[in-house]
Amino acid sequence: MHFFSAAVILLTLALTLPVEAGKCPKVCICDSSKLTVSCVGKTLTEIPPTIDEITIKLDLRNNNLKELPRGAFIHTPYLTHLNLQRCNIIRVKEGAFRTLGRVVSLNLAYNKIDILYQESFDGLSSLKELHLDHNRVEEIQPGAFTQLGFLNMLALTHNQLVYIPNMAFQGLNNIKWLRLSYNSLNNLAPEAFAGLFTLSRLSLDHNELQFFPTQTMNRLREVTRLDMSHNPMIYLGEESISMTKLTHLYLDHMSLQDLSGQALSGAPLLSHLDLGHNQLRYLEPLSGPKELKSLNLTGNPVYCNCYLRPLRQWASAGGVKLLGVCVGPPHLSDEPLQAVAPLDLRCRSRGEALKDEFDKDDDSAGSTPPTAKPKPKVKCPVNCDCDIEAQHATCEGQGHTKVPRGFPAKTQLLDLRSNHFHHLPANSFPGTSQVVSLHLEFCKIHEVEGGAFRGMKNLLYLYLSDNDLTSLDPETFAGAPELTYLHLEGNRLAQFPRSALALLPSLSVLHLERNAISKLEPSSSLPSVTPNLRELYLTNNTITTIAKGALDSAYLVTLHLDSNQLTEMPSNALSEAPNLEELSLSQNSIRWVGPFAFQTISQSLKRLYMDQMGIEKMSRDALAGLGPGLRSLTMRGNQLEELPDLRPLTGLEVVDLQDNPLMCDCPLLPLRRWMENVSLEVTANCGHPPELRGQSVRDVHVFTSCPESISPPGKNVVVALKPQKVKKPKPSLSKVPALKAKPVKPKAKLPKATKNRPPRKPVAPRVTKNKKTFS
Ligand SMILES: *[C@@H]1O[C@H](CO)[C@@H](O)[C@H](O)[C@H]1NC(C)=O
Ligand SMILES: *[C@@H]1O[C@H](CO)[C@@H](O)[C@H](O)[C@H]1NC(C)=O
Ligand SMILES: *[C@@H]1O[C@H](CO)[C@@H](O)[C@H](O)[C@H]1NC(C)=O
């Protein structure tokens, strides 16, 4: 039916809009040599239907479009630049841009868009820049950006975002800069930025984050610049920032009163740190950054007495430039920090120091030792620090052997990591019913008694990672029914903790990496234990066998089984996992992959990782069933001489075939042809014959002598003998990509995905054939 109506549209167009060179809507200005059309400020309420089809740049700023309907740009399929700023747009209907496969820049700034729907940006498969700033976006629906695999820059500044859910930016496989400044963000889900492996710059300034979102940020391995300025953070504790490539960090204009000397211990490459305009009176030397060049303390009330001396000496020794001035004592006031000699940083006798303090009428003046945290003014256990405003309490690394009691009733984040609890008895956390997030990492816990967390009825996040647990009591989580994110990685669990998990109906993300689990038995089958589990991480256990159906689950989206001891593909274990999108099997030792190994999950799978598995041979049909839905495939570091048929994988955005000893001879011709055909960079090298070893499959000439058409050991015949030339767009209506029936995508919460989903729509034509990386 859709096809029929599309055909009718096309037919109607053909009858009413004969193509004439140089036609131009009345209200617009057209340049037929540059192929640009500009209709700025004309109070247009719809896109003029008579814009010349061959237009490349279309400027529609300052109009009154209100809603962009499906197929809004069907008349102009060759656009590369589209400007829709200030058009009063409230809603972008799904499929609005579906015909715009060549657009590289889309500007939707200064409109009134409030929700980004799952399909709002479908079809923009070449888009590099998307401007959505100055709108009213308060919700990003799952999958909103999945089609934007080439996007480099996304601007969402000046919107109304409060929370970023897990996987919000999924699909942005080439994103470099993500701009979220000037929103009202106060919470980022731990996996909010998951999958953004290419992100190098992130702007989160001018938001309402009260804590540094350590866990979320740790996922961003490639980020070099992070702007967090203008967020109301008071304190940065040990190891708050663990970002191995970070070079520039902006933490100015926050409310920092204290910053641990270990806060940046996980940022070894940091070269510029801006701490301007905070409330810091002193600062400990910073351990971690080895290449720090400048430390900006401008606008802080830095008190230049003996407590600042370690910082000053450290800065001189390490060549760190200190910016800012002393506020006192009087004889040093306004003196640049860089100019004060360490020996001038003195504390006078205790009496004088005290007098100084009274004069200043300030409780944290010069004589407070530098390690003191802002003074608690509320009830708070000994050796803990409770911040009533931030609803945050921490007793991190204080050598506690029992869980302290008496936290403020409103505490939402309770940080007890790095203590020595050994054993957690029942009811260990009375009066903490408001706590949402509980940290118990590195506490040497080997036993948790049933009911230990009883009463924690709002607990969503529980971190029990890096303890000594060998098993879990079935009642462990009794009384904490909301628990959604559970971290048990880095323990010594020998079995999947089936019975304990059965008390957690809401569990969605489970981390079990680095344990000693050796098998998954049928009794631990997920639907019966944790029916809502979406992400399961079992990396680095000792799993050798997985029973049939053990991992079947209607909701499971992510499954990591890498670094285990599997010797066979776990195909049987996944016979009913209709929503699985990401599967990692890397670093197992599976030598042979048989035909149809992924058949049961082929409809949903988007990312498949099979690196370093010692695979020697794959059936030509090993990947059969997988099609355009697959976005990432890695098979790096195996022993493959031949590859399975990759041609059906037309939606790949990332493919890594490196470090395989490929046999560069005629049977590899289909791969070579495929590489010429796809619009992404494929690296694959020859391992054989010896004279070609190390050369790129793309560069060797051996294939020119192969018969023009060979039948590989399947029955597929190679077509497209010569690489096709890219033709210039010619104005011809027949080239307008037709609107196709929209594929039904499984919704996140669908109990069962439709088995026979229609194939994905074809990708719209691209401008260049071999698209390399943008930057
Ligand atoms: C130091 O920080 C202040 C305030 O954040 C800023 O205005 C200034 O430009 C910074 N100076 C340098 C050299 O980065
Ligand atoms: C697995 O865990 C062990 C112990 O935690 C660690 O030493 C090792 O590096 C990990 N292996 C991988 C492949 O991550
Ligand atoms: C190359 O692409 C064309 C058009 O998409 C397709 O028909 C052909 O089968 C492809 N050839 C190979 C070797 O993948």
UniProtKB/TrEMBL annotation:
GO molecular function terms attached to this record: transmembrane signaling receptor activity
SMART domains, A to Z: LRR_BAC, LRR_TYP, LRRCT, LRRNT
Keyword Repeat: yes
Secretion signal span: 1-21
Composition-biased stretches (Basic residues): 742-760
Alphabetized UniProt keyword annotations: Disulfide bond, Extracellular matrix, Glycoprotein, Immunity, Inflammatory response, Innate immunity, Leucine-rich repeat, Receptor, Repeat, Secreted, Signal
InterPro entries according to UniProt: Cys-rich_flank_reg_C, Leu-rich_rpt, Leu-rich_rpt_typical-subtyp, LRR_dom_sf, LRR_TM_domain-containing, LRRNT, Toll-like_receptor
Keyword match Plastid: no
Subcellular location: Secreted, Extracellular space, Extracellular matrix
GO BP, one annotated term: toll-like receptor signaling pathway
Residue ranges of domain LRRNT in the record: 23-57, 379-413
GO cellular component: plasma membrane
Any Pfam family hit: LRRCT
Residue intervals of the LRRCT domain: 300-348, 660-707
Region (Disordered): 356-377, 723-775
The protein's role, per its UniProt record: Potential negative modulator of chondrocyte differentiation. Inhibits collagen fibrillogenesis in vitro. May influence chondrocyte's differentiation by acting on its cellular collagenous microenvironment.
Protein family (similarity comment): Belongs to the Toll-like receptor family.
Complex and partners: Associates with collagen and binds to collagen fibrils.
Name by which UniProt lists this protein: Chondroadherin-like protein
Source species: Sparus aurata (Gilthead sea bream)
Gene giving rise to this polypeptide: chadla
